[in-house]
Design a protein that fits this description.
The complex is a heterotrimer of chains A (about 400), B (about 150) and C (about 170). Chain B has about 150 residues and is an alpha/beta fold. Chain B contains three helices and seven strands, in the order E-E-H-E-E-E-E-H-E-H. In chain B, a hairpin with a 4-residue loop joins strand 3 and strand 4. The radius of gyration of chain B is 18 Å and the shape is globular. Classes of the chains: A alpha+beta (about 400), B alpha/beta (about 150), C alpha/beta (about 170). At the A-C interface, helix 5 of A face helix 3 and helix 4 of C.
């Protein structure tokens, strides 16, 4: 039935004594609780983990090769599907690279809409990370709470775009949908609801002695190791490195908004949990400022608007932008471009090479979960076997994103 | 500033661009590391079949240096398509290990000195097929799926 | 042992009791009881295949609660009777799914979620994807990319009707 390299089992599977020094090799298999479809081969001696080898690729669909046969605009859903919990930031990263290649600049109102939806997406992503961390530690209460708290924000995106998670509303040159009329009130209600919920999370989850005992001091990553291994996102900031793309290399309108970058210095699982809650508070600050500062104006760039037919302009007045021929025949001049965007899990990097046709010549995307892979080989050895789920849950690893 | 490499330029869309030949690669990489670039963001390749060469491209960035934070440096190296071998930079920057494995299985670029060069994403059946090269064609019709007959019938 | 319809069961004790049990199970009161028990306790084996898995997780959440339909995600495939394929199946993952499916005891069903199992979805021309119907026999398909959690709940209701043998309108 199966070739010798694949043993599909749940949790820890058949153990076989390997030839080296009495170590036992286990497989934390591809079908397991939480975010599955990734296999970790763990060599243990007694109870301590000695070597870890992640076996990835169970969700590899070849996004890089597939995008070379699609138009620049049509590759947007291709980019969103891997990082499904954080789609707006992935979308934004790709579109930034295309705009740098083609030399298009979006109008200010579109930039503000992009920033607002990106921060909503960041809140959604962090809540999902907390839910999965809860499942890995064994409780399902936090899983239910965090998934329920995501729903008001998913409803906001759905009211604007019509789709729950895969919005695809950022296109090169602007955004596709206008903010609805009552968006300001609804988002204020949602933010206040989440702030009240944070008090409940503190009581149940953050100050829980079981959680503290299982995560404090576990999976410590020092500052030098974090820099040397190249980890990204909240995992990096929990180890003491103050690095946030929104401050170091500002894109869109982040240089006009005022927010802090939370940093912690312990580097263990508990710090990684706390820093996600801090980042959600910062996101709420950003959303409130952006809603106050948003200017009026167009949501696509002027050249595109002028080329629309009168029927499409009538549809534009209702708040939607149709994709016209000027976008489908977008052929940037030959060259290269690079874009870096801070997503919910870390930095997203895109490198596009164009040769003057309507299809990208080389599409390279590096997602944050891919760059967090050294956690498995360097942080897990030395810990006890029972700590492996706690570490895995705290780094917020999402296999479809890493495999693309 | 960099008499070792072949071309050095600053591009407004990409950042610092350095390109050199495979022999001088380790020296240039160590010089960039001294200058403050301390981790690798991406390792990949670009295939130019019409010009008969394959690029190996490394993108670097810096966490600890304040001035270079947020900046990207691109280090590229031109290889021939028949025998693409290049010294591995996993000895210089440890963050390149997983990404070089991916570049190997997608393009066939052989990194000499890499501690553990094997397939990362693709299963064992697709070894030797370098999918991201331009001469590998995707299927054009919907019914040419990989049929797992060997396993399941 | 013979009954009103006039058939004789001859043979040793084991085969006779098995035939009698099959006959009784196809008669009305016992059959309805068994179906009622099965349809309200469809336990899926824990298998999250690709990006549709987040909508499965959202469907198990409190808003679109699937547990009220008897849908408890269980860890061990040897004690579950449903496989949910969500998302794209790659070559590596298809071997795993087949292995999990073969470990499950009869009766078992498969619900396939997402556009990627229907006909390839947006990754149709990839070099490492497999169509799901080449790997497993599928009972219910749920279209969407990703399908809404309400669509998943409706697919469970359709599966229940299929188990009971009632006619289905989709």
């Amino acid at each position: 039935m199966a070739s010798p390299t694949v043993l599909p089992m749940t949790y820890e599977a058949l153990s076989q004594v390997s030839q080296e020094e009495g170590l036992i090799e286990l497989q934390v298999g591809p079908a397991h609780a939480g975010s599955g479809h990734m296999r970790i081969l763990v060599w243990v001696e007694g109870d301590t983990v000695v070597k870890v080898d992640p076996d990835v690729g169970f969700v590899h669909r070849g996004v890089e090769k597939l995008s070379e046969g699609r138009l620049y605009v049509k590759a947007v859903p291709m980019v969103e599907r891997p990082s499904l919990v954080d789609t707006v930031n992935a979308n934004l990263a790709y579109v930034e690279a295309v705009e740098a290649l083609a030399g298009i600049k979006p109008p200010p109102r579109a930039s503000y809409v992009r920033v607002i939806t990106a921060e909503i997406s960041r809140i959604i992503s962090h809540l999902y990370g907390i839910a999965i961390f809860g499942i890995f530690l064994g409780t399902s209460t936090v899983f239910m709470w965090a998934l329920a708290d995501r729903e008001p924000f998913i409803d906001l995106l759905e009211e604007m775009t019509g789709a729950r998670v895969t919005c695809s509303h950022i296109i090169p040159g602007g955004v596709r949908w206008e903010l609805p009329a009552d968006f300001g009130d609804r988002i204020e209600t949602a933010l206040r609801y989440l702030e009240n919920r944070f008090n409940e999370y503190e009581k149940l989850w953050v100050k829980n002695p079981v959680v503290v005992a299982r995560t404090q001091g576990v999976g410590r990553l020092s500052r030098e190791d974090a820099i040397r291994l190249g980890v990204v996102g909240p995992n990096l900031r929990a180890s003491g490195v103050k690095r946030d793309i929104r401050k170091d290399r500002p894109y869109e309108v982040y240089d006009q908004l005022d927010f802090d970058v939370p940093v912690r210095h312990e580097g263990d699982c508990y710090a990684r949990l706390l820093i996600r809650i801090d980042e959600m508070r910062e996101s709420m600050k950003i959303i409130r400022q952006a809603m106050k500062q948003i200017p009026d104006g167009k949501i696509v760039y002027d050249d595109y608007y002028n080329k629309m037919s009168p029927l499409f302009k009538k549809i534009y007045d209702e708040g939607r932008v149709k994709i016209t021929q000027s976008l489908t025949s977008l052929a940037p001049p030959p060259g290269e471009a690079v874009s870096l965007v801070e997503g919910g899990r870390g930095e997203m990097f895109y490198y596009l090479v164009s040769d003057g046709t309507r299809f990208p010549y080389r599409f390279r995307s590096v997602t944050p979960s891919y760059r967090n892979l050294p956690f498995f080989t360097h942080v897990m050895p030395g810990q006890k076997l029972a700590d492996v789920p706690a570490i895995y849950g705290s780094i917020d690893y999402f296999p479809p994103e890493a495999d693309r | 500033m960099r008499p070792l490499a072949d071309t050095v330029s600053i591009d407004e869309k990409v950042g610092l661009k350095v390109s050199c030949s495979p022999e001088k690669l380790l020296v240039v990489a160590k010089a960039l590391k001294e200058a403050g670039f301390d981790h690798v963001v991406s390792v990949t390749g670009v295939d130019w079949p019409k010009q008969g060469k394959l690029d190996a491209v490394w993108h670097l960035s810096s966490y600890s240096d304040e001035e270079l934070a947020g900046g990207i440096a691109q280090l590229s190296c031109y290889l021939s398509r028949e025998n693409p071998t290049v010294p591995s930079l996993a000895t210089v920057w440890e963050s390149a290990t997983f990404q070089e494995r991916e570049a190997f299985e997608m393009f066939g670029i052989e990194f000499q000195g890499h501690p553990d060069l094997r397939q990362l994403f693709l299963p064992e059946e697709l070894k030797g097929v370098w999918p991201l090269r331009k001469d590998f064609e995707l299927k054009k019709r919907r019914d040419e799926f990989w049929r797992p007959r060997r396993f399941f019938q | 042992m013979s009954d009103q319809e006039g058939s004789f069961y001859l043979g040793d004790l084991e085969t006779v009791t098995k035939k009698a049990m099959d006959y009784l199970k196809s008669k009305k009161p016992l059959k309805s009881l068994i179906e009622w028990g099965t349809t309200y306790s469809l336990w899926p084996a824990y298998l999250v295949t690709a990006c549709c898995g987040t909508e499965l997780a959202a469907a198990s959440g409190p808003r679109f609660d699937l547990e009220r339909l008897g849908f408890l995600s269980y860890g061990n495939p040897r004690q579950s009777n449903l496989v949910l394929i969500d998302g794209t199946l790659t070559i590596k993952m298809s071997k795993v799914v087949r292995g999990v499916w073969e470990q499950m005891p009869e009766p078992k069903w498969v619900i396939a979620m997402g556009a990627c199992v229907l006909d390839g979805g947006i990754f149709w021309n990839s070099y490492s994807t497999v169509l799901a119907r080449d790997v497993l026999p599928i009972d219910v398909y749920v279209p969407g990319c990703p399908p809404r959690p309400e669509a998943l709940a409706e697919s469970v209701m359709i599966l229940k009707k299929k188990i009971k043998g009632e006619p289905i309108e989709t």
